[in-house]
Design brief:
Glutathione_S-Trfase_N, Glutathione-S-Trfase_C-like, Glutathione S-transferase Yfyf (Class Pi), Chain A, domain 2, 10 helices, two-stranded parallel ribbon
């Protein structure tokens, strides 16, 4: 069997099994803790503007979705932002983009320092996004699916007046089911292709991925967005995978039945979102390519980062809407 990129997250059959999220605290107005206090007995932290810091990487699709939601809801003044380098070393995500290599608010050089300050016995992979409490330096959550939903619901009183409703109550049953399919088959599906260490595991992930992309293409033939004529959380989650598809997943993760640019409906849909305020300006193709090709040594041992593909077509007319 081939070498696994993350040996602790590879099954006996060679399938990639993503580790669970370790920190699952939630910031909410329902916390019984006083302002400035820690979590209550249900791990609920008090909602306070300016207290929490979102740590993200421009390359990471899970972190990217948190940034897009934060920006769409107008929470950029309520939640500060720290950015890690796209290249990890053995100690994980680094703050080498900041002066002297330290996050200017948290004062740490590696995100792992916040993880260990929260759980000194933590031995898992350090992940982004992470919402960190600037008062204690502890990680509130790295539970990326719940984080963005909480930004839409628990943080509502801090939203901009014109903020969209990305998680409408009346659509939640259908939204939850759709997002679960997208996560399993697409968001995580590309990783199940790329990190597979057996032919059988790869083949299964590959077929499942493209079957879901075909179904999503069909869904989007007669509607502008996944839930109709309004952008929802589901669109954010699909976008962050699609925008990385041709620059990383098609070649690096062997998701090569079709490029995004060869799937007409999804390609037009992705360009539509890219050209929507809050989406395209958050994309950094250089960071994306450097992260995937330079940090996955088991997949790309030379560390060579490709020069292509041509990215100018992202701003061409999409013909939707």
């Amino acid at each position: 069997m081939a070498q696994a990129q993350f040996s602790a997250e590879s099954s006996d059959t060679g399938a990639f099994v993503r580790q669970p999220n370790r920190f699952t605290g939630r910031v909410t107005p329902h916390s019984t803790s006083p302002p400035g206090g820690g979590p209550d007995d249900q791990d609920r932290w008090p909602l306070e503007p300016g207290r929490y810091r979102l740590i993200w990487c421009r390359a990471c699709p899970w972190a990217h979705r948190a940034l897009i939601v934060r920006n769409l809801l107008g929470l950029d003044d309520a939640i500060s932002l720290g950015t890690v380098d796209p290249i990890r070393d053995d100690r994980g995500w680094r703050f080498t983009l900041d002066q002297d290599g330290f996050d200017p608010v948290l004062g740490i050089g590696f995100l792992s320092e916040a993880y260990l300050a929260t759980d000194s016995d933590y031995t898992g992979r350090v992940t982004v996004p992470a919402l960190v409490d600037t008062v204690t330096g502890r990680v509130v959550t790295n539970d990326y699916p719940q984080l963005t939903l909480d930004l839409s619901t628990e943080w509502r009183r801090l939203h901009a007046p014109d903020a969209p409703d990305l998680y409408p109550v009346e659509l939640r049953p259908e939204l939850d089911a759709l997002m679960a399919e997208i996560h399993r088959d697409v968001n995580n599906g590309v990783y199940r292709c790329g990190f597979a260490t057996s032919q059988q595991a790869y083949d299964e992930a590959f077929r499942t991925l493209f079957a879901r992309l075909d179904a999503l293409s069909q869904r989007l033939t007669d509607r502008r967005y996944l839930m109709g004529e309004r952008i929802t959380e589901a669109d954010v989650r699909l976008f962050t995978t699609l925008v990385r598809f041709d620059v990383a997943y098609h070649g690096h993760f062997k998701c090569n039945r079709s490029k995004l640019t060869e799937m007409p409906v999804l390609w037009a849909y992705a360009r539509d979102l890219f050209q929507t305020p809050g989406f395209g300006e958050t994309v950094d193709f250089d960071h994306i390519k450097r992260h995937y090709y330079a940090t996955h040594g088991a997949i790309n041992p030379t560390g060579i980062v490709p020069l292509g593909p041509d990215l100018h077509s992202w701003t061409t007319p999409h013909g939707r809407g």
